[in-house]
């Protein structure tokens, strides 16, 4: 069963955060809080961890659409094609925030994203995922724990999340109750914002 770590945004304990980082580096999966709902995450460069993530979501890895969680926009060029100044300014004005932005991918994507033409980028407005990415040294792959049905209590209460997913992941980070509204997905591949899914973020 997963280890439950109580890590709170206002005063995250360094030793607990380091335990999360060690788990990610060793190919483990985590459930972590964000500015929207709780999410599943793993090391973006660990193909076996990525395969586990795909199995949990019941999709083939090559067809998965896992977001890339960054702590700022400095990693954009690692994963996306060069973007216009106007698009960058748009991103900067909305991030960090409850958005997933779809951008054109470059050819340097991690192995698990091979042949993906687009990629979803998230910079959550929440200190825990930002701290994890900062300490890990690179972004993580992520997908929300919600099913296709309505978000219900098991996806907002970390104790119930641990009961449901504890046998599938290594760590559940308990930061208190999560939100029950997913991120807004915005396609920027045309240069103009197109809302694919309206969620918490308002354009």
From TrEMBL:
Recorded hits in InterPro entries, A to Z, give:
DHBP_synth_RibB-like_a/b_dom, Sua5-like_dom, SUA5_domain
Q: Which residues form the YrdC-like domain?
A: 14-201
Among the GO molecular function terms of this UniProt record, one is: double-stranded RNA binding
Lineage summary: Bacteria, Pseudomonadati, Bacteroidota, Flavobacteriia, Flavobacteriales
List the protein's name. Threonylcarbamoyl-AMP synthase
Q: Which organism is it from?
A: Chryseobacterium carnipullorum
Q: Which SUPFAM superfamilies match?
A: YrdC/RibB
């Amino acid at each position: 069963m997963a280890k439950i770590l109580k890590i709170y945004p206002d005063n995250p304990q360094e030793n607990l955060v380091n335990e999360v980082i060690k788990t990610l580096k060793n190919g483990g999966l985590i459930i972590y809080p964000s500015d929207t709902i709780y999410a599943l995450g793993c090391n973006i460069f660990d193909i076996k961890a990525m395969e586990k993530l795909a199995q949990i979501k019941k999709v083939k890895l090559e067809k998965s659409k896992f977001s890339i969680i960054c702590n700022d926009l400095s990693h954009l060029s690692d994963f996306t094609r060069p973007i216009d100044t106007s698009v960058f300014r748009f991103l900067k004005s909305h991030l960090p925030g409850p958005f997933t932005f779809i951008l054109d991918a470059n050819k340097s994507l991690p192995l698990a994203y091979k042949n993906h033409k687009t990629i979803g980028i998230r910079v959550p407005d929440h200190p825990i995922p930002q701290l994890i990415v900062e300490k890990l040294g690179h972004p993580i792959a992520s997908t929300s724990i919600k099913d296709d049905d309505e978000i219900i209590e098991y996806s907002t209460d970390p104790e119930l999340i641990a009961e449901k997913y504890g046998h599938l992941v290594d760590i559940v980070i308990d930061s208190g109750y999560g939100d029950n509204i997913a991120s807004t997905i915005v396609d920027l591949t045309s240069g103009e914002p197109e809302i694919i899914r309206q969620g918490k973020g308002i354009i």
